[in-house]
Amino acid sequence: MFKKILIANRGEITIRVIRACKELGVPTVAVFSEADRAALHVRAADEAYCIGPAPSRESYLRYDRILEVAARCGADAIHPGYGFLSENVAFAEACAAQGITFIGPNPRAIRVMGNKTTSRVAVYEMGVPLVPGMRENLVSEEQALEWADRIGFPIMMKAAAGGGGKGLRQILRREDVVAAYRAAKSESLASFGDDAVYMERYIENPRHIEIQVLGDKHGNIIYCPERECSIQRRHQKVIEEAPSTLVDPEMRRAMGEAAIRAAKAVDYDSAGTVEFIVSGRSREFFFLEMNTRLQVEHPITEMITGIDLCKEMIRSAAGYVLPFRQEDIPCHGHALECRIYAEDPDNRFLPTPGRISGLRVPGGPWVRDESGMYEGLDVPIHYDPMLSKLVVWGSTRERMITRMERALSEYAVKGIKTTIPFHARMLKNERFLAGDIDTNFIDQEFQPQDEARVKPHEDIALVAAAIGAYRRDKAKALGRVGGESGPAGDASAWKASGRVKRDPGF
User: Fold this and answer.
1) Catalytic-role residue among 10, 62, 111, 293
2) Were 195 and a residue from 31, 60, 109, 185 both cysteine, which residue would form a disulfide, CB within 3.0 to 4.6 Å?
3) Is 135 a catalytic residue?
């Protein structure tokens, strides 16, 4: 096992890795930007070092500084978490050049799977189903029109180096092809420094279902039961559950075996995820991409399998053999994850940085909160606004949802707005309860104008209540309410109104 592990990240994933390291008996090192000097991960690690100013390009993306820290403190391995440098092949190679183990897959796997075009070619040769479309990049507007006619509408234009919805365009008509081609190339270049794009057929009623794989350096690879990540907003996952309501045991086996073939295409030797787009109508599944890192949503797989994926990822990097075979992987019960963001759901999900003035975290049986929060923390504007991941388990899907509703009702974050109320509304949606979802679910069920329509009415009601309370107070003071003045020391109706509005959790 390693002597000391540096975690090149921040927030809740760093806390998650530190916990795994502590259980393995390995000391940990945190790095932090000037904006994160008081962050929880800095306090949780055995050692911590500042690596630069708040902007990530000057701190968390500066792998030269991270490697300097690793050399200075004697770390012999680096865990990249997710985001930042987790899928940066140059960083993985620089670690190897310095004699430090990169806790992730081999550089070739990162390079091939990090590009949508090369990954599609690699998995196609292994017999993994692909969405009908191109396996190379577009080179001209004329070729875009030619391929559009060949594929048929609707079409998706995608950035080859893309992710998170960047460089992504849906095309419904031939006259929109050229404009989409130009826009996707421009956005891809701005986001990834690479303007390569390609086209494929748009899958109707698409569901996003993914398979967790785990490999070691001895050629062993296993898959876990699927995670469904179809509840998305702006192509970012919001709620994930495992297993999917769409998948039966036969489909699970077929998707798992396809995921193994995709992983074997690049001799995969770590924790990773093969993502599929699935037709909600025909249940056909097609390769979407492979993420060569630990996923944000990995805890729900841990909840239904009992496997500590983070710990096994570290053990694999250290050269240990996977301690289980495919037939040993269970699928027990149901798990659900809600991503809690510092965003205002009633104001178009705008980020809400600021100080957390109060915090109450849910607990109880089969409730897990993965968080980097504490009371008094200043949430910075510089990074992803995700504050925590609330995860629950239930023996049935119904019990799982009921437990999440209970946990959300206990969760209180004071001082800033969060997406907790949005999740509570989501869990009451009849389509969600029936498992009738796809990647368009939020756009179809939660239109921004719905929120805007409700909010003004609430504001009007509050103003009316305040005016009424003021008039009653004034009437009491003048002794005109029922011909009597109120008892001395009574709280006014205005104060009583304010108390009712306070969160009962505090």
Assistant:
1) 293
2) 185
3) no
